[in-house]
Design brief:
The protein is an alpha+beta fold. Helices cover 33% and strands 15% of the residues. The chain has a two-stranded antiparallel ribbon with strand order 1-2. The longest helix is centred in the first third of the chain and has 21 residues, at 2-22.
Length: 82
């Protein structure tokens, strides 16, 4: 019985160690801000307060890329090109 317990404990510890090692390289945060718009505008607040049963009409999710000290026009986007 002790052999089974020690084997289960060994497998568990190896699994936990593998999970911790695989998650050590966390990617950096995205620098582009994400925005979200709703119609009706105050829909999320009303839904959380249980003040509406109406369905959501529209939700738009969009991001705005940031320049981050890059030269956009002329380098990234050539002049005289669409």
């Amino acid at each position: 019985m002790n052999k089974i317990k020690s084997m289960v404990l060994t497998v568990f510890l190896m699994s936990v160690t593998g999970i911790c090692i695989s998650q050590s390289a966390i990617p950096p945060l995205d620098k582009s801000p994400m925005d979200m718009c709703y119609y009706p505008v105050n829909y999320p607040i009303l839904k959380m307060q249980h003040k509406t049963d109406a369905p959501l009409i529209a939700r738009v999710i969009y991001g705005r890329p940031q320049k981050n000290d890059r030269s956009i026009f002329g380098d990234l986007v050539p002049y005289d090109m669409i």
